[in-house]
Structures are given as C-alpha cells and as structure tokens.
Write a structure and sequence with these properties.
Blueprint: H1 8-15, E1 28-35, H2 37-41, H3 49-58, E2 61-69, H4 73-86, E3 89-93, H5 104-112, E4 116-118, H6 120-129, H7 137-140, E5 144-146, E6 150-152, E7 161-164, E8 167-170, H8 174-184, E9 195-201, H9 205-218, E10 223-231, E11 234-243, H10 246-262, E12 268-270
Parallel strand pairs: 1-2, 1-3, 3-8
Antiparallel strand pairs: 4-5, 6-7, 7-8, 9-11, 9-12, 10-11
Length: 271
C-alpha cells in the first residue's frame, strides 16, 4: 500500500528550521569490548553491556561502539588499540581470571608495549582473601597487570580489575563487573547526563520517515530514532529523542508531536 507523502507545507517548514547554537562542550565517548569465546558461541549471554551503557548515560558519556572478540591475542590487541585511539574511554569485560584462557591482562600489556608484573597491592588483596595454602600460582595470576596500571577494586571478590590510561579492564562475571564499573563510574570526566524522551504514534514508519529525517537535520544535537512496535493488536512507532540540553529537547519533542499530528496521526509522549 502506498503511503501518502507528507504535506508540502510541513516539509518546507521542517527544512527551513534554524538550529539553535550547539553546546560548546565536547561529547565524551566510550566503547565496550566484550572478550570471550563463550559469548560468541552462545554459551554465555552477555549481561554487562546494558549495565555499562546505562551507567555511562548517567554520567554524560556516550557509548558509541561495542565489539565482541574471541580469546585470541592478536584480535584483542588490535581491538584495544583501535578503540582507545578513537574514543575517550574503553571498557573491557572478561578474561582476567586464573585459567589458561584468561589472557586479557597480557593483551593489554602488549597493546601498550609494557611488561606484565604482579601488582604489589593486588597481591596484598589476594593474600588477605586466601589462606596461604590456597593462594596458588593460578590465583596469583589474578594480580598480574601491565606495568603502570592502577587497580580497580570491587566489593564482591578480592581480585581487582585495572585501568591503563583510558582503558578499564573488568571481570566478565556480571556481579563482579558491576562492582568494578560502579567503583569508577563517577570518576569519569563526562558531560551533562543524557535525557531520553519517547513519543508514541499509530502512524507507520513509512509515513513519518521523511519528516523525521528533516527533523534530525534541524536538531543535529538530538539523537532521534524510530522503533516500530506491536501492541494491543496494532502497529505503531516509538520516536525516541535523546539529548543533554533539557530546553532543546523540549523544543524537539514539541516539533515531533506537531509533525505527527500534521501528518494525520497522534503523538503522545510516553511517561
């Protein structure tokens, strides 16, 4: 079925919008690198990405990319070097335990061109957590960090993560990862928290696509996305707007609602 084009007057008005001054502060960005064969095989379902993304949003850091790589040294090193050069922060999860396939610490050291060593403070943490007879060589491996790294402690287990410049290396076990991430989250130099607003409409995406494209051009500082849904026997679209300037976001939401109503539909902001 053909969808009627947006009224010419509406489209002309949208294209002629003049953007207000963009925020002068730089957008702070981050990437997440999930490390582990178990994620790629489907054996383990990742539960860390969502927590990190939400936490970064709270402190005004935009998560711009996420990757999953296997337990292969070359691939981990390449990904770390690419991401740390491209983004302000990089967060890795997985591969810092006591077993043979926990190779992340060594890969980070190789990426930065420094040797591994047993971090003295990490050794003390493990010594306090284990009886001498149980602190074997495998467990001491969890004290290994690249030379120059700072520890990232956690309230769940003794073995710490670490930070090397802008790269934060954390455990893959969700409870431990959350403890580590929450330890460092508020130390990040981010911008204003990102606010999210959602407008629901019964119009199909095809009817609003052109108008939303023009709207995004008019508000380049606001992320505008459309997400179809099926609810109560009918289809519709959620238009999600995200930005850090509340007043600017208010204007964008009002403009989206005006667009949807002008196209013959409804535009109801979800609470």
């Amino acid at each position: 079925m053909l969808v009627a084009a947006a009224p010419a007057a509406i489209m002309t008005a949208l294209r002629s919008m003049v953007c207000a001054a963009m925020p002068s502060s730089k957008t702070v960005t981050a990437a997440v690198l999930l490390i582990g064969n178990e994620i790629l095989s489907g054996r383990t379902q990742d539960a860390n990405l969502n927590h990190i993304a939400k936490g970064l949003t709270e402190v005004g850091v935009k998560m711009a990319e996420a990757r999953v790589v296997p337990d292969i040294e070359g691939e981990i090193v390449e990904a770390v070097n690419t991401l740390r050069a491209k983004y302000d922060y990089v967060f890795t999860t997985g591969g810092i335990g006591p077993t043979h396939d926990d190779i992340t610490a060594g890969c980070i050291a190789k990426a930065f061109g420094v040797p591994l060593h047993c971090h003295p403070e990490a050794v003390k943490l493990l010594e306090a957590a284990y009886e001498p007879a149980k602190l074997n060589e495998a467990r001491l491996k969890m004290a290994e960090t690249p030379v120059g790294a700072d520890l990232v402690k956690n309230a769940v287990s003794a073995a710490p993560g670490f930070r090397m410049e802008n790269v934060y290396v954390m455990a893959g076990v969700p409870a431990i990862m959350r403890a580590m991430f929450d330890e460092v989250k508020h130390t990040l130099a981010g911008g204003p928290p990102v606010i999210s607003r959602t407008v629901a409409t019964g119009l199909p995406e095809g009817a609003i696509a052109e108008g939303l494209g023009a709207m995004q051009d008019a508000y380049p500082d606001i992320d505008i996305g459309s997400y179809p849904f099926f609810r109560q026997g009918g289809f519709g679209v959620h238009v999600v707007l995200r930005g850090s300037d509340a007043a600017r976001l208010d204007r964008a939401v009002a403009a989206v609602i005006e667009l949807l109503v002008g196209l013959g539909g409804d535009g109801i902001e979800d609470s």
